[in-house]
């Protein structure tokens, strides 16, 4: 385990440096390292590197770090949600939170509401409508016996369709073509708007969430075996599922607000991790965030490079890389999530 | 440890069930839908009774936080989708206890050996046969080191040898065992006392030879039974006629 964690930390570190170096204007690796070192230690740099310093420090690094945070968060939320609703097809978006966020985001992009907030209007609106959607899903699916897996999935899926319809209506009614385009770009996920200011909240919420879930690995194992089994093993199932719902919803809302609805990471990375180390959450929870972080850093690099100077939406690339990887791994290994 | 049910009632399913068990094997028998599993679910806290109470050494199980340290259960739940290994499943039995890695792995290894599944330790739980799974789940319950063991159809999926093994084994643990059994002859040979449920009510209680009489079998199960004595153990065993009594 220690070896696997160290290896992934190494991969992530290299990925971050590579992510900063690569782009439409590529900065040589040694220069990237030198500039990062100078920035971190407060050293000085030659005047002719000022332009590259601006690219590395002000533009690329926050974006790459945000990619790592979003990848780590979505991957971990995917693990938790799949255990919470005991469903192999669940991902962070199955609870309708991202669709809720898309209503706010598209409203900003197409109607220009909240324009007083400037560049933060989109994130703010997405976050607010994501929270509203979360509350609605919670209230609708709650029964006298608490949240049950099937009701959560059904309610989330049904409401997600409703929210998506509203978002699509907004896009369709958009007066300007570029407004519709930017709305769709957001819906498919993008880190183009990443700034240092978007990092602290997203990083803090993600770190807290991962920390909480990592302490609950054994309880997640028990929950994965069934509610009755978890009860007999001393897990207070109703309370635990409510906590999981709140934690995963908060993480998803924050991540979606800064990056849009990046698809596939939260569905696939949990499965990829399980294919390597099995279903035990004590092993999956430390590895899934690291794998997700490295994965999304490279996805974002591809988003910047493949059609440069244009950018591609992240969701297109996560699917393009993820689907084949997933199919190959699934065929090669005897992976049996979902029964035989 | 003493388990007591006092007038346990679940609306529309069971009414006023009172029974107890203490350091013995107590069986609950009855036809399909008579409320056997519901009764057990109240004991292992999957269900809160509408009235009445389940007590463990005098304390209500629904008012205690750490019941799982004293009470383990084998439930009928079986739709597992996650691909845990056998060892990981059995390790879950240690969840209620404070962590102690050395002792935990010793207890898990012993539990695997007890039900004779050590050779399956690193196998995928989902790849096992029904009988193997059942034994692994019993190993998990044993790893929980309970003082009360609640078993819902523990012999499901097991061949005759493993049925006898499991029942002998649970007796050998020396803890209070409360078990639902379908097989009346198995119940007669392995339980100290039996309780009979019919339509959610307790209709008979006592040692097997007092409970398993043709009149009661006819009334509750609607079949004609003949009681014979087991030639070596002397335990009552039932033989059934083909015709169903009205």
Automatic annotation (TrEMBL), chain A:
Coiled coil: none annotated. It is a multi-pass membrane protein. InterPro entries: ABC_BtuC-like (IPR037294), ABC_transptr_permease_BtuC (IPR000522). It is found in: Cell membrane. Pfam families: FecCD. Belongs to the binding-protein-dependent transport system permease family. FecCD subfamily. This is Sugar ABC transporter substrate-binding protein. It comes from Lentzea flava. The lineage of its organism: Bacteria, Bacillati, Actinomycetota, Actinomycetes, Pseudonocardiales.
Automatic annotation (TrEMBL), chain B:
Keywords: ATP-binding, Nucleotide-binding. Residues 3-224 form the ABC transporter domain. It comes from the Bacteria. The keyword Transferase does not apply. The keyword Nucleotide-binding applies. InterPro entries: AAA+_ATPase, ABC_transporter-like_ATP-bd, ABC_transporter-like_CS, P-loop_NTPase. PANTHER family: ABC TRANSPORTER ATP-BINDING PROTEIN, HEMIN IMPORT ATP-BINDING PROTEIN HMUV. One of its GO terms (molecular function) is ATP binding. It comes from Lentzea flava. PROSITE patterns: ABC_TRANSPORTER_1, ABC_TRANSPORTER_2. This is ABC transporter ATP-binding protein.
């Amino acid at each position: 385990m220690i070896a696997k964690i160290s290896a992934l930390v190494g991969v992530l570190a290299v990925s971050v440096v590579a992510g900063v170096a690569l782009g439409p204007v590529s900065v040589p690796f040694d220069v990237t390292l030198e500039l990062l070192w100078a920035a971190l230690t407060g050293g000085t740099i030659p005047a002719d590197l000022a332009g590259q310093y601006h690219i590395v420090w002000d533009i690329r690094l926050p974006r790459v770090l945000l990619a790592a945070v979003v990848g780590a968060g979505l991957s971990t939320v995917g693990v938790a949600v799949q255990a919470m609703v005991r469903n192999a097809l669940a991902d962070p978006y199955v609870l309708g939170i991202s669709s809720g966020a898309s209503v706010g985001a598209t409203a900003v992009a197409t109607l220009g509401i909240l324009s007083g907030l400037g560049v933060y209007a989109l994130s703010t609106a997405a976050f607010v409508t994501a929270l509203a959607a979360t509350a609605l899903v919670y209230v609708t699916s709650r029964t006298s016996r608490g949240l049950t897996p099937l009701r959560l999935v059904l309610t989330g899926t049904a409401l997600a369709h409703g929210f998506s319809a509203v978002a699509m209506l907004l896009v369709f009614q958009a007066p300007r073509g570029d407004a519709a385009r930017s709305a769709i770009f957001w819906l498919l996920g993008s880190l183009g708007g990443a700034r240092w200011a978007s990092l602290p909240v997203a990083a803090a919420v993600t770190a807290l969430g991962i920390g909480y879930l990592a302490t609950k690995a054994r309880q997640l194992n028990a929950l994965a075996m069934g509610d009755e089994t978890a009860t007999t093993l001393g897990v207070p199932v109703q309370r635990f599922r409510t906590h999981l719902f709140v934690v995963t919803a908060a993480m998803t809302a924050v991540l979606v607000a800064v990056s849009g609805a990046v698809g596939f990471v939260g569905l696939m990375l949990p499965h990829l991790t399980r294919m390597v180390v099995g279903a035990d959450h004590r092993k999956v929870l430390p590895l899934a965030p690291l794998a997700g972080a490295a994965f999304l850093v490279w996805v974002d690099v591809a988003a910047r490079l493949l059609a440069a100077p244009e950018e591609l939406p992240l969701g297109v690339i996560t699917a393009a890389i993820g689907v084949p990887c997933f199919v190959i791994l699934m065929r090669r290994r005897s992976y049996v999530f979902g029964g035989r | 440890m003493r388990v007591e049910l006092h007038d346990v009632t679940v609306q529309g399913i069971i009414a006023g069930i009172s029974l107890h068990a203490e350091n013995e094997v107590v069986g609950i028998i009855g036809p399909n839908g008579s409320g056997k599993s519901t009764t057990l679910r109240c004991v292992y806290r999957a269900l809160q009774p509408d009235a009445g109470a389940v007590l463990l050494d005098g304390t209500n199980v629904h008012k205690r936080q750490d019941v799982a340290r004293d009470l383990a259960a084998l439930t009928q739940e079986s739709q597992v989708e996650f691909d845990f290994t056998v060892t990981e499943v059995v390790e879950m039995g240690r969840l209620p206890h404070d962590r102690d890695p050395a002792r935990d792995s010793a207890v898990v290894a012993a539990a695997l050996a007890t039900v004779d599944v050590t050779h399956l330790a690193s196998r995928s739980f989902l790849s096992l046969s029904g009988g193997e799974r059942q034994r692994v789940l019993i190993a998990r319950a044993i790893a929980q080191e309970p003082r009360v063991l609640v078993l819902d159809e523990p012999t499901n999926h097991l061949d005759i040898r493993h049925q006898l093994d499991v029942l002998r084994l649970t007796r050998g643990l020396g803890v209070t065992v409360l078990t639902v059994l379908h097989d009346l002859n198995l119940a007669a040979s392995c339980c100290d006392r039996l309780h009979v449920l019919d339509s959610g009510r307790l209709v008979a209680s006592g040692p097997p030879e007092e409970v398993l009489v043709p009149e009661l079998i006819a009334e509750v199960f609607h079949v004609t039974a003949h009681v014979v004595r087991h030639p070596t153990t002397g335990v009552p065993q039932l033989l059934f006629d083909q015709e169903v009594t009205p």
